[in-house]
Amino acid sequence: MEWRALSIAALAxxxxxxxxxxxxxxxxxxxxxxxxxxxxxxVRALGPAGAALPAAFGGVAMxxxxxxxxxxxxxxxxxxLKPAAVCSLAxxxxxxAGGNVLCPQAVDSFGPxxxxxxxxxxxxxxxxxxxxxxxxxxxxxxxxxxSPIAGWGVxxxxxxxxxxxxxxxxxxxxxxxAGVAILARAALRHPTQEPEVCVETEEGExxxxxxxxxxxxxxxxxxxxxxxxxxxxGLANRKYAEMFLGREISRSERRGRPVSVxxxxxxxxxxxxxxxxxxxxxxxxxxxxxxxxxxxxxxxVARYSASRLLVTLxxxxxDQTFEICERLRETVGSVAIEGKPIxxxxxxxxxxxxxxxxxDLVNAAHRALxxxxxxxxxxxxxCDDLEQAS
Length: 390
Fold this sequence. Notes:
- 57% of the residues lie in helices and 12% in strands.
- The two termini are 46 Å apart.
- The protein folds into 2 domains: 2-189, Arp2/3 complex 21 kDa subunit ARPC3 (Orthogonal Bundle), CATH 1.10.1760; 212-389, Reverse transcriptase/Diguanylate cyclase domain (Alpha-Beta Plaits).
- By secondary structure, the chain is an alpha+beta fold.
- It has 15 helices and 9 strands.
């Protein structure tokens, strides 16, 4: 049992903050932490006391791998102790309902494990609500709306498989999954080199943004820099937008300044894309240039999907961005597709107010966009409006 506990803890630490991400057909993404299957395995195979060990190690790994600086003590304790407490409660429910720790693959352990999963999700939600009430924020990444539907199902299946492996495999095999996870982290830490986009100012601070056309000019129009440009519109592409937003999130964590994004979508875009895809390309390009002309030099406008723009505004909060988008909504009204003026719906979200990672920030803006479309065309909606509506 000791080897099993240490091995599962090693796997949780090796996985750390790694996440699995899925792209949805509408351009959104869904992600969930890879440590959750390991936590579920500990719930099923270690008992109430032992289940806390992998969870605590996973929290430590998350702290060590994050970019935040000068974290308050409550944040550190929460990141480590919250998963430990949740896993202990879930394992207590599992054992109390008759689950077999030594033989988790037993048929009579499936019901208890389902109960443990419910307790896991419920206890996590209660603790998240408590910390938000006390401090006004939840310091760790929260799953998107879709994640509990698909993500928790995947976590339960993988957790079951890991628990079975750690209950039947010989001792020398137990550390192999942790070794594979460590190699995966090492590979992801050094991805294929991208051309450096940030430049140094006189004070030594990275410049907030360099537009893709400036990158092209500086690099002589190289193939690497061209990979940041959407060929149909001349705007920055999704690859550049995600890289830029990730860097701005890291900068925000270091400096404590907000970052906001706005997702701009042409109303009726599905029909327009079916009937006039080239006309939509032209309209998106015109919209992007009009919007960029209204913004600061270091704000970035990128084509995020066929009919959507992602606007990133460093050092702007949600209220400021909302006011800017109300103005932009009128600005793009001069754009037409085949002689017909267009209208747009816009969703706004801010870091760290509405999300704790770049992916979740974009997801939050998409949820606000969906609310704007539900309210009617030519509408701007922020995540604060979602909270008021709920």
